[in-house]
Specification:
Blueprint lengths: L1 E3 L5 E3 L4 E3 L5 E3 L2 H4 L3 H17 L2 H15 L9 H10 L6 H15 L7 H9 L9 H4 L10 H16 L5 H13 L3 H4 L7 E4 L2 E7 L12 E6 L1 H22 L5 H4 L8 H4 L7 H6 L7 H14 L15 H14 L4 H7 L9 H4 L11 H11 L22 E3 L5 E5 L18 E3 L5 H19 L2 H4 L3 H26 L1
Antiparallel strand pairs: 1-2, 3-4, 5-6, 6-7, 8-9, 9-10
Helix pairs in contact: 3-5, 8-9, 9-11, 9-15, 19-22, 20-22
Length: 497
């Protein structure tokens, strides 16, 4: 009895293992297979329907939840006692297990499959079960799992760019993290991208992003067009060109234009080894050559293993996952007064139930860093990554006058360790690891100036976002001021002993 999953994979409902898509296969375990034959047949039928109509992820969840239920059954039937006993075992935190299975059991009965009685359905209809609590880490502004602050995000972006320049991460990893930051889309969506999804319209850039969480939304059957930056467009395009070269090198032939358009942006390098010249088209038409979710997770692990962006809230390396970028985007939109419907659209939700957390309790999501708070955060953030020098000749370029950095031509504040041309203002130097601030430089005066400018921006604009625009520079200068003070004290103690 061969069926086709929603993602186009064939499976036999009488087998113990069903492959539903590239990432998910489900197994009918011994506890399932030992059920009474009529109950087992009914379960296989409804689970098969779900596999054909719903996402593989949702189908697998129904299997997991049903396995929890049958622990309270005698194996012959699902009864009202089974349901009541299971519910009695659940806590407030996990009663949503029954809630998630409720619709599954109702559909089972409605479709006329054996195993679920009218009495069970009527009992379920009397239950008022709370759903799984959504967005807990968002609502609590958790510094480890919730949305990131602007400074944390800027720190991550800076770290990402530096790691790529230093060749410490792959270009695929660099492209993936950039895509997560800019699009705020799910890994399951990004892994479906193909070359043809990149769109340039005059000076505007877009990506057609596949939808994945909607009913009957099969592999690459539904899309939302998303405006992106030119930088991301070029990064993704260059990655696609790299993937084309890898395939052409492997098969020893040039791909025709129509096949080039179908090249996956994020490609399974393991599957690439299976391709031969004769069947490359088959691989490109389906999801066979696309990365698995596990391969996408490896790109995130690659980044997390080497990045050292520091949170000003914890003083520790920021833990990064794909979900946090979505939380950050949603929180920032909610804080700016964007309504739930628009946020749902921008995060690619089908309804607003999962985005309400972004529009509630937003008043305290922005920190205004004043002088007292900045002094404390500066010690934690490590926004400054250079090295303090006692004199200019301690810099890598010695007394080369072209290396000297001034505060707009006035006082010398330090030196640059590279001779590469840079158009950044001297304030941005504090964020650069090539900067060598002088121990006796006018760093406190620069810090005072930055705070005065910050207060003036707030007074004129009444916008905390605008006022906070140079906060990461402020935290870096705070660190330098504090570090210079400590170095001077240490030398005094050493001198007079």
């Amino acid at each position: 009895m061969t069926k086709i999953s929603r993602d186009g994979y064939s499976f036999n409902q009488n087998d113990t293992i069903w492959i539903l898509n590239k990432d998910i296969k489900i197994k009918l375990t011994r506890d399932i297979l030992s059920l009474d034959s009529s109950l087992l047949d009914g379960f296989k039928n409804i689970l098969s329907d779900y596999a054909q109509e719903m996402s593989a992820h949702h189908t697998r969840n129904m299997l997991f939840m049903f396995r929890r239920l049958i622990k309270f059954s005698n194996g012959n039937a699902i009864t009202t006692d089974s349901i009541l006993n299971w519910r009695a075992s659940l806590t407030r935190e996990n009663e949503w297990y029954l809630g998630s299975l409720k619709g599954f059991l109702h559909t089972w009965y409605k479709r006329g499959y054996l195993g679920i009685s009218l009495e069970v359905v009527k009992l379920l209809e009397t239950f008022n079960i709370k759903g799984n609590k959504k967005g807990k880490s968002v609502a609590n502004h958790c510094p480890y799992a919730g949305p990131m602050t602007n400074n944390e995000l800027l720190s991550l972006v800076s770290e990402l760019n530096e790691l790529w320049k230093q060749n410490r991460i792959s270009f695929e990893c660099y492209a993936y993290i950039n895509a997560l930051i800019i699009t705020a889309r799910r890994p399951s969506q990004l892994k479906q991208l193909k070359m043809c999804d990149l769109i340039k319209d005059n000076n505007d850039y877009y990506i057609n992003i596949p939808r994945v969480k909607q009913r009957h939304s099969n592999f690459r059957k539904s899309f939302r067009k998303l405006a992106v930056t030119e930088d991301l467009y070029l990064i993704i395009r260059n990655l696609a060109e790299d993937q084309i070269k890898k395939i052409e090198t492997h098969i020893g032939n040039t791909l025709p234009f129509e096949q080039r358009k179908l090249i996956p942006i994020f490609m399974s390098h393991q599957t690439l080894l299976e391709i031969n010249k004769g069947n490359v088209g088959l691989y490109l038409e389906k999801d066979l050559l696309h990365s698995t979710i596990q391969e996408m997770k490896k790109l995130m692990v690659e980044f997390n293993n080497v990045q050292h962006a520091i949170s000003e809230r914890t003083g520790k390396v920021i833990y990064v996952n794909a979900r946090r970028f979505r939380y950050t985007r949603g929180t920032n939109l909610g804080r700016k007064g964007v309504g739930a419907t628009v946020i749902a659209e921008l995060l690619d939700h089908s309804d607003i139930q999962n985005v309400k957390v972004y529009t509630e309790n937003t008043a305290d999501t922005v920190q205004y860093i004043d002088r007292v708070m900045g002094a404390e955060m500066g010690k934690l953030a490590h926004a400054f990554s250079g090295r303090i020098i006692s004199s200019l000749n301690e810099g890598e370029r010695g007394n080369d006058p072209t290396s000297f950095i001034t505060n707009n031509g006035s006082d010398t504040i330090g030196a640059c360790s590279t001779n590469k041309f840079c158009i950044s203002s001297y304030e941005n130097c504090y964020l650069c690891r090539k900067f060598r601030p002088l121990l006796d430089g006018p760093h406190q005066q620069i810090l005072d100036k930055l705070y005065r400018e910050k207060e003036e921006r707030l007074r004129v604009s009444k916008s905390i976002d605008y006022a906070n625009s140079k906060d990461r520079i402020i935290l870096a200068v705070e660190y330098v001021v504090k570090a210079c003070s400590q170095m001077k004290k240490s030398r005094e103690i050493h001198k007079y002993g």
